[in-house]
Write a structure and sequence with these properties.
The protein is mostly beta strands and about 160 residues long. It has two helices and eight strands. It has two domains: about 70 residues, first zn-finger domain of poly(adp-ribose) polymerase-1 (2-Layer Sandwich), CATH 3.30.1740; about 60 residues, no CATH class.
Length: about 160
Amino acid sequence: MSIQFKALPTEAVRALQRGGPDAYGHTPERRISDGDGVPCRHCMKNVAAGDGYLILAYRPFPELQPYAETGPIFLHADECERAEEVDALPEMLEGSDYIVRGYGRDDRIVYGSGAVTPTGDIAARAETLFERDDIAYIHVRSARNNCYQCRIERA
């Protein structure tokens, strides 16, 4: 089976980079990166030391519902190119492990699908989850803070 890691859509990111409201209706906060642990969810690379970035509330679900988690993410403050949809791990996933969790077509967590997964095993874990008919897509989230990293879909 083939999978694709998907970055945030460019149209939504550009609106945020231009000062548009986040999931809570607030203007994204601007900071300067120290080069450590600031992964952009659009280009899926870390924001380099000295570069500006945004902190904002993001909800990777189409509508509000009990499982529609909202949390902090980072984006480059200036425009960056969206990461290609490929089966290779994004550059920004450099931690030791992540939560890999499946969601159904109704955008709800599929119970029993979530697991803290070593980074090198993420693709294999996704392929295993996609063997299930009840998994529509997968989120990769921080194992320490539960922050949304990216989405995985069947290719």
